[in-house]
Specification:
Elements lengths: L8 E4 L3 E7 L5 E5 L1 H11 L4 E4 L6 H13 L1 E3 L11 E6 L5 E6 L15 E5 L8 H12 L4 E5 L4 H4 L2 H14 L2 E5 H7 L5 H11 L3 E5 L5 E5 L5 E4 L12 H15 L6 H8 L3 H19 L14
Parallel strand pairs: 1-4, 1-8, 2-6, 4-5, 8-9, 9-10, 10-11
Antiparallel strand pairs: 2-3, 6-7, 11-12, 12-13
């Protein structure tokens, strides 16, 4: 097993303030954004992680910077160049599920030493919203020469447009990724009426070695392209408070487990993942299910540490 802190990881994507509304209660303010939450999750799991993001030099931007420092995620220089910090309004229903409305701007700051990172993660709004979406794609294309790639579509229909409009861009990222994680809701929106295992196989044919789909309380499905079959992993949760950040926590746990197993973090790791067995990747999927399960048992986008994984 590799030292979990030895591989420098870069997360590229949006950070923002989640204003979480529960019924008639005053909004709760949390630092969020899908890629930022993944960075915080990796930092909480003791990985060497940097975040290339976009926020303002305002009170909310300082809150994001403080959260990065708290979770051990270094902020790439220039990430504070936005005119204002972005905000997502999350409205929780009676079951704790969140729907979102966004006021967001996004672009990629200049990254001085891209070749110094062994793994890059991106996804969600960062892959779609311009001008940052095209900049993120170019960044991933450049990083792939020396780093493994993970991608989470994390569809936001209210912001991204129609599935037909966004699908080609998402598939361009999938073609560059070694690992793709999506929710069953993402797949239902992107590929209506298609069988989930068929979508995983399609993504594998585009280029992804490992594809994973989360199914809420029903756990996860995962597939290796060269194996062909789909495996399951049962959910693990001590109770539901809300789902805010659960998919991002799952993603952080998945990347963490694969890094620890030597299946991400270098071009050699890419080759190992491409020939891995389902048993080889299962511990990482189990870690992802565990981290996601801990997060849904807490309010907001909680990031569990290693001591909580037992």
């Amino acid at each position: 097993m590799t030292d979990p802190s030895s591989t420098p990881v870069l997360v590229v994507g949006e950070s923002l303030i989640d204003a979480v509304e529960r019924g008639s209660e005053p909004p709760e303010l949390h630092v969020g954004g899908s890629p930022a939450n993944v960075a915080f999750g990796l930092g909480a799991l003791d990985h060497d992680v940097s975040l290339a993001t976009w926020f303002g030099r305002d009170d909310w931007g300082r809150r994001i910077a403080d959260r990065c420092a708290e979770k051990g995620a270094r902020v790439v220089a220039g990430s504070d160049g936005a005119a204002r910090t972005s905000v997502a309004r999350a409205v929780l229903d009676a079951g704790g599920a969140a729907t979102y409305d966004f006021d967001i701007t996004w672009q990629v700051p200049a990254i001085a030493d891209l070749a110094g990172f062994g793994h890059l993660h991106t996804g969600s709004i960062a892959a779609v919203l311009e001008p940052g979406g095209s900049q993120t794609l170019v960044t991933v294309q450049q990083a792939r020469a020396t780093a493994t790639i993970s991608y989470d579509p994390n569809a936001r229909p209210s912001l991204m447009g129609s599935p037909d409009e966004v699908r080609p861009r998402m598939e361009a990222f999938i073609a560059l990724a070694d690992v793709v994680k999506a929710s069953d809701e993402d797949i239902a929106w992107l590929y209506p009426d298609r069988f989930v295992p068929d979508v995983l196989r399609h993504w594998g044919s585009l280029g992804a070695s490992l594809t994973v789909v989360t199914r809420g309380g029903e756990g996860a499905l995962y597939a290796l392209h060269h194996v062909g079959s789909v495996a399951t992993c049962e959910a693990r949760s001590s109770g539901l408070v809300d789902t805010v950040g659960a998919g991002d926590s799952f993603m952080a746990g998945l990347v963490s487990g694969l890094l620890d197993a030597g299946l991400l973090g270098s071009t050699e790791a890419r080759e190992r993942l491409a020939t891995a067995t389902l048993d080889d990747v299962r511990p990482a999927v189990e870690r992802a299910v565990t981290t996601g399960g801990i997060t849904v048992s807490k309010a907001g986008a909680y990031s569990p540490g290693r001591s909580e994984l037992d």
